[in-house]
């Protein structure tokens, strides 16, 4: 009886939202989680219209004409979307450059991507805000992330920071490269490379740099609790607003970009222990946004 | 129509597949299971929060200084006095007291106390850790018994070695220079399953100071070798285990270390007998060999980010072998001398001195009467006269010679449990218990073995009621089997002008427990393998006996300080005013013929210290320290060491093409009553041989800017300048 009532309630709900408009967006989720719920909700708020939501468990796309844009969340949803024949303009969100870069060459023309990892230039700018005397910023790369070098180098050049780089050749090489790098860098910048920044290596990276009074910036929000000093990241709201912004711009095809909107997350305890003055996160984010507006 | 949010939720709820563990499949977005590495319990206090004054000598400074020994690095610490005794005995004191007895500071190597249980000193040469393996040295200037227990009376030197986790590859280094400097070092890093290791072998040698007369070397050279194996295991994401095995062997030269009761008669006074010639000629060396072994383990368990537990355990053993042959007159065995020494040791010393000068006509009774004044009795006079007669009897006999030694074994076992708990943003609690067993064995000095148990309970509460205020309350309750129970509290308050600038006020009480030698000595010379005119069952006349009821020395200290970090300028500044007072002090020189330790002395230190560390950019670092100290000491032995003005200045610069230069100046106006000024220059050139190998060549030049001896008259060099060259290959 209870099941029947629930089914009935669902039916009513589904019917209520069925009459979708042709300019509606479809969001493809891998599954439900608090993050996807928050993102969808923020997206609807940012767009000012409801969106339709399906999961990758759905066999095929609904008739595509109904959607102006399809937004995928994460790698699974993107992979699922790539298996569909539909030509609808699609924005892949919540993917990292590490994942997407090697695949971007074979991307279909209807696809654009919005990275979830922090933008290098923004991370450098944040580093400079926290360490005004920053001269040399160090990054660790692996063979797979070597391509990021140009991106970091361009950002560093633009800001007049010397970029120091060490390439890690497997887990056994980490400590050696890290020590060398810390010796010639003022801070360590986390890169989007899960072969370096993972739970196994984290202790080595954080303890080694901490013992030399060097801080880690980034690579992403989950690392802050572990002991990284600060990072920019995009909250579900930032991501939703960034998506809405791209959609308003007509979603330029075949482009990859970083989120326009972002927040800052810092570890006040680490800052205090190392004697680094730390403005609050909102102030940092605002300051960074202002700097990005400056010509 | 439903609100969008609800609609979306409804769709998810009704139409999605059954919930599974599937996620966004992305390590950066997923709920990463990242351990909190820099947890609240693991983060160290920032310099602005330390309940006292702390100087940190980091790797850059250690390298740039060119120092070959840890004590030489201590010249970079404001208020630290470094001197040498017998040439090769390094003594480090903070602020002052007796330079020869540097026994009021705790010294730790990775948490292991190298402050010796039997003789409250530190055998710096025997510390089995090469300077190349030191990560940094933290020096807490001021009493810290509240955290480290008795003997952290005037300060704590905490030497932290490089973590084996740090890859160091293979390093080979050799240093050679004037004054017989020959140092070598080799280390190898290796990884095993879940563990990292570093094995270091090293050695050092030099021939110490020179004598005034050219061509005659002062017998104070030393030569030592060390081995250190250090490993770190990762048990799981929460637990680690660090192990260290270390050993060292040091050989140090000493002159003949026995003063005969009957010294050879001064030639100008009287006709010399056969005894005088024989005793004057008998000057064998008393070189010593010290071996030091230690094993230690440190288990750390981060129970959660706000709670950690660690257990430190170590055992160490130090053996000193110093044996030679002593000669004296048979007079040292006669009953009259024993009686005189028992009645009045000063009288015995006076008689010994008169006999050095006295000719046959000299009246012993009169001489003793004049010099002993009120203490003189006819009985003493009669004994003195009898001894003088006995001397005449043996005038032309051979001396009695026997085997003598200052052999000593000292060992320590220590277990310490420490718990750190962060209750909330305002409150952090560190507490712990420790148990220590100390033992010293020496036939000569203790007539066997003395041992001791020490139980400690300690706690420190950090309370931060407000962003601008920090209060720290610490205390140490200590039960020492030989000395008794004591409690040492400390209270510190910080006011933060802003997060990087704080003003502090600290009050602390501290104690030093007398060492086994002071309190429990039973020092006499058993007569072994005797030759010459030996009486039957010879017993040496003098015995130095520790009173057994010495009290702890007590320190009360107040300091007012300011710590500022000018982050934009890269400048850190620490200023401090202090007032320290030690009561119940034992300042007596302890000789076998004059062994009367007591608690009658006191000393007071007042002054100001400053430390500036300025990193002008990554290529430049300037560092200045200064101490102004005024003292008031009741015992004249404590009135020599403290200079009124002392300090250091340093400039490190990284030049292009792999060149680094460092220039240091050290100065003290009256270091043990002698001026001390020295300028050190070090030049290093680094050649990158390949991506992972490099060769460094360095020259260290030290120039004394005055011509005084270093702390004692005999500590002189032939030349004001010293240099050594080193080559270091790492791959």
Fraction of residues in β-strands of chain B? over 45%
Strand proportion of chain A: 15-25%
Number of strands of chain A: 12
In whole angstroms, the N-to-C terminal distance of chain A is 65 Å
Structure description:
- The complex is a heterodimer of chains A (295) and B (731).
- With 295 residues, chain A is an alpha/beta fold.
- Chain A folds into 2 domains: 18-116 and 238-257, Rossmann fold (3-Layer(aba) Sandwich); 120-233 and 263-293, Rossmann fold, CATH 3.40.50.2300.
- In chain A, 43% of the residues lie in helices and 20% in strands.
- Chain A contains 12 helices and 12 strands.
- In chain A, helix 2 packs parallel to helix 10, helix 5 packs across helix 12 and helix 7 (174-183) runs parallel beside helix 8 (199-211).
- The model of chain A is unreliable at 9-21 (pLDDT under 50).
- The model of chain B is unreliable at 1-25 (pLDDT under 50).
- Chain B folds into 2 domains: 56-257 and 288-321 and 406-514 and 550-730, Maltoporin, Chain A (Beta Barrel), CATH 2.40.170; 258-287 and 322-405, no CATH class.
- In chain B, a hairpin with a 2-residue loop joins strand 32 (674-690) and strand 33.
- In chain B, the strands form 5 sheets. Chain B has a 22-stranded antiparallel barrel. A 5-stranded mixed β-sheet of chain B has the order 1-6-7-4-5.
- In chain B, helix 6 packs across helix 7 (345-357) and helix 7 packs across helix 8.
- The radius of gyration of chain B is 30 Å and the shape is globular.
- Chain B has 731 residues and is mainly β.
- Chain B is built from 11 helices and 34 strands.
- Helix content of chain B is 12%, strand content 50%.
- Classes of the chains: A alpha/beta (295), B mainly beta (731).
- Chains A and B meet through helix 1, helix 2, strand 2, helix 3 and helix 7 of A and helix 1 of B.
- Chain A: Keywords: Signal.
- Chain A: It comes from Pseudomonas abyssi.
